Amino acid sequence: MTGVPASATGSSGRPAPGGKLGAAAVNQASLWNIANILTMLRLVLVPGFVALLLADGGYDPVWRAWAWAAFAVAMITDVFDGHLARTYNLVTDFGKIADPIADKAIMGAALICLSSLGDLPWWVTGVILGRELGITLLRFWVIRYGVIPASRGGKMKTLAQGTAVGMYVLALTGPLATFRFWVMAVAVALTVLTGLDYVKQAVVLRRQGMAAERAARAEREAAAEQ
To answer: Which string of DSSP letters, residue by residue, matches 130-155?
Structure first.
């Protein structure tokens, strides 16, 4: 097998005119897989969600319900796009970059809007967004030594955050409004605890990586002296 698409070859097996162009088109088309389309949908939903949440001053229960629906769709696509990409080998460079951006964009937009409306204390928004930014920088700090895997606690954090923020998007009153406060409290606690766990993992990973580098350097120096 030559690796050249059949449509780009002639009957003799040699690349037909325009073969490179055809191969490039195939590679470009691979970006338009279902996982990436769901990620793009989530990005498009962000401005629509903000418009719905802030419509009519931000306090109309009907508009808030529509905003919740947009937020729910974004959260659901977040679950499915990653699963589809891994299951069907649809991982692309675009997806690696766009997926986390889409996740943080919809969550950040929701938190900032809710705080600006006075529904959510600014310190909660600061803790959650600060943690996400800090972990992103932390991953870059240790990327030469390895990747910090997503933990079960991190997945629970994401679920708690999505549930809590979704409840705050809805115009809830009475016992449900009280209940959502406790759901958000759990989400904030998990945000802090998993953040500290990531810091611990990053420090350990960096130390192990630096130790391995020193050992490899010592071996090279010893071999050079012989």
So the answer is: HHHHHHHHHHHHHTTT---PPPHHHH
* Secondary structure (3-state) at 9: strand
- Neighbouring C-beta atoms of residue 220, cutoff 10 Å: 10
Report how many helices (DSSP H) and strands (DSSP E) the chain contains, helices first: 7, 0
3-state secondary structure of 117: coil
The pTM score is: 0.76
Distance, in Å, from the CA atom of 218 to the CA atom of 123, rounded to the nearest integer, reads: 48
pLDDT digits (tens, 9 = 90+) for 142-183: 878 887 776 788 889 989 999 999 999 998 989 999 999 999
Structural contact between residues 191 and 131, judged by C-beta atoms closer than 8 angstroms: yes
Distance from the first to the final alpha carbon of the chain: 47
Any residues with CB less than 8 A from the CB of 36 and at least 6 apart, and which?
Answer: 81, 90, 92, 94, 95, 98
In 3D space, the residue among 94, 71, 72, 90 whose CA is nearest the CA of residue 81 turns out to be 90
**Span 115-126, pLDDT tens digits:** 999 999 999 999
User: In whole angstroms, what is the distance from residue 135 CA to residue 120 CA?
Assistant: 23
Q: How far apart are CA 92 and CA 136, in angstroms?
A: 19
